[in-house]
């Protein structure tokens, strides 16, 4: 496969590129979905192709083809250069690339049980069983369960001498039960909405004990129909870990993407409220806020050996003691900003241009616990598991809905509440973080559905989080 | 053997009598020229081939996908999909594949668009950027051309092709921006200068925005906002699977909307995009979803139709069985009122150019939260008097279009960007009695 990538690079250089790199990417995926004990989908997909980037002047040209031959790869390189050349009609400042070590190496996700070695019948039986348990709870109309698996091999070659093979294995899934009311639906999910994904094999599925949580999840969904609505007003808010992980994703992860900060995503995803001159001084949150982008965490979804520019995976400080100190970057954006490259550029398959993506952007552990947070809260709400999420184009104004909540009164968890929502402004909200769970409650949550770029690309990102408490947050926003 | 229809038939033949089978093959080229800070910074293209097979053995169903079209790869695709089906439990609701049926003659295709060069896209971009001085322009111009081939073991076979071209972008300085959008079947119809001009006009109007208090406001919504509303109504309401599951607001035959509202889906409408059959080979046809405010029908694929005791409406999407069937050639009936006339009839309200990051809080009540973006303007005494900062709303889309709520429909129906992709919805501007804004973008 390295030969095809090499041919693509050679084609681009021969056509005038000052730099070129190419990835042959082979993916195998398996998706299984069960609804109410009936199998809905078994889909096994395989793709393979080569994508090549050519840099000429201020623009990347990119071309991808599913035809895998020496001639087709070379032609793809030539076309990538031709595309870049056309960009000169509307040119900008010269694009430079930050230096990175040139590597000839390989890397593989550690796993103990490859998902492909587990019988399809075992996976389906487990999902059917989970939905059967949920359906056994009165009031549950819809019981869904799914598994999703990815096996990705990449062969990366650059005109600077990179030659890197990677084999990345990812596994995940989850389930939800839905109760239908007269004019509403209520849903509970496990382990989190959209499922929980890791790098690793089927052992990451087994560790979540799908069957053992189905009864509780279904009972909570059914009970929500009769629950009181979320109170309105400013309350102390405690977020369960997976919701805090999504809060990190939306209000920190995207905001620190250097391509957004530089305006490269302005028209679609948007920009950022962060300004580079304030790097190192901007107060992002309270002193409890310690965030890193760490692509080396074993088992986390945003973990790899090298990014799609051949830069080694690394851990970068993003927020230290509440102060913004780092960004997510690639070779071009880092050079444009005068910063070191962070190795955070990845593409969605062979046919998408690699771009700045989150790795594992997460909170370091605090020194509290959920139990302590509740005990020290006089009047608050505990919210768990995301149901809706929306944030503005600068990543400032957000509104989240969760599946379930509980009132907290005088240090005790009280009645269940439905349709919990909260809203806030990013720096003010993070500034109100006053308690954070410790390492024992910290989980490397995985987000398998991060959309970005045009054409749209789906990224897999990780977000470590334990439960956290925030003082005085507006809750109970209604339509 | 490179024609999609031939590849599809080859796959069905390979399966032979081992199973019922359908195959769908899509080939083509997509290219996108992207600009930011007023220059082209990303420029991409790819030749795509996507081959999907679904097999059924006594109701045991599995699907497989590949990008390779040589005989060995196709045989492997067929074998591993058959293996998956054999290992799967039978689906008691399996409706079988589509029977032979005539597919309407339709060719939403333009050779020049299929052959569009990066220089042609760059020329559109250049015109967009030149429409304003001193701004940071950002957006894209893209073209795509695809051919789709379908075959199944019952003898249904179909082929079709489509092209699309879009220019979309903003002019901005800092946080002040205005947007423009155009989608067409032919790149020759794209007018980068006009679209850039609209974005520039909105940008200039958007200068010096001020905060206004959240609350209920009368609104005039641009076509992009209306397209976003229609995407949510389609995905969570007219989706036949959602209706079967009791998760939809839809009550067929009831007046659920203002009688000014009519919405239909028609792949054969003038200038429409797409091919004349769906992912299951079912011919598409004009389908009315709302007529004069009355809910008329849901969108069905074969499985959801069978469960509902209805016929497939030809809205199956590739790989979307678990989500359901969704309209994808949506047309919202327009009116005879110009945007200026709508604004002139507002004493105090807001004009909103586009929505951003809309997400549903509850699918059944269609309560959605989102923000305004790229142009939100105060209307006072029948005229725009200034720009306001972006605002967050939390609003039921069904309630917003309910009886008595629609005060006017624009005469400006066009393809509008819903933020979920170009080319799905043609919509006019819309004048609504009330919209629930629940916060400012910065507090």
SSE layout and pairing:
The complex is a heterodimer of chains A (479) and B (443).
Chain A: H1 2-14, E1 19-35, E2 38-56, E3 59-65, H2 70-86, E4 104-108, H3 120-135, E5 140-158, E6 163-180, E7 185-190, E8 196-199, H4 203-206, H5 210-224, E9 228-229, E10 233-239, H6 241-253, H7 258-261, E11 291-294, E12 315-320, E13 323-324, H8 331-337, E14 345-346, E15 355-356, E16 361-363, H9 370-375, E17 379-391, E18 397-409, E19 412-418, E20 421-425, H10 426-431, E21 433-436, E22 443-452, E23 457-465, E24 468-475
Parallel strand pairs in A: 4-6, 9-19, 10-17
Antiparallel strand pairs in A: 1-2, 1-5, 2-3, 5-6, 6-7, 6-8, 10-24, 11-12, 11-16, 12-13, 14-15, 17-18, 18-19, 18-20, 20-24, 21-24, 22-23
Helix pairs in contact in A: 1-2, 3-5
Chain B: H1 4-15, E1 20-36, E2 39-57, E3 60-66, H2 71-86, H3 111-114, H4 118-130, E4 136-152, E5 157-173, E6 176-184, H5 192-205, E7 215-221, H6 223-238, H7 240-244, E8 263-265, E9 287-291, E10 294-295, H8 302-308, E11 330-332, H9 339-344, E12 348-362, E13 367-380, E14 383-387, E15 391-396, H10 397-400, E16 406-409, E17 414-416, E18 425-427, E19 430-440
Parallel strand pairs in B: 7-12, 11-18
Antiparallel strand pairs in B: 1-2, 1-4, 2-3, 4-5, 5-6, 7-19, 8-9, 8-11, 9-10, 12-13, 13-14, 13-15, 15-19, 16-19, 17-18
Q: Uncertain segments of chain B of ≥5 residues (pLDDT<50)?
A: none
Beta-strand proportion of chain A: 35-45%
Number of domains of chain B: 2
Reported for the largest beta sheet of chain A, the result is: 8 strands, mixed
Find the structural class of chain B using helix and strand composition. alpha+beta
Largest interface: A-B, 88 and 95 residues
Question: How would you describe what is shown here?
Answer:
The complex is a heterodimer of chains A (479) and B (443). Chain A folds into 2 domains: 223 residues, PmbA/TldD fold (2-Layer Sandwich), CATH 3.30.2290.10; 248 residues, no CATH class. Chain A is 21% helix and 40% strand. Chain A has 10 helices and 24 strands. In chain A, strands 1, 2, 3, 4, 5, 6, 7 and 8 form an 8-stranded mixed sheet that branches. In chain A, a hairpin with a 2-residue loop joins strand 12 and strand 13. Chain B has 443 residues and is α+β, with helices and mostly antiparallel strands. Chain B folds into 2 domains: 198 residues, PmbA/TldD fold (2-Layer Sandwich); 236 residues, no CATH class. Chain B is 22% helix and 38% strand. Chain B has a 6-stranded antiparallel sheet with strand order 3-2-1-4-5-6. The longest helix of chain B has 16 residues. The mean pLDDT of chain B is 96. The interface between A and B is large, with 88 and 95 residues. Strand 3 of chain A pairs parallel with strand 2 of chain B, so a sheet runs across the interface.
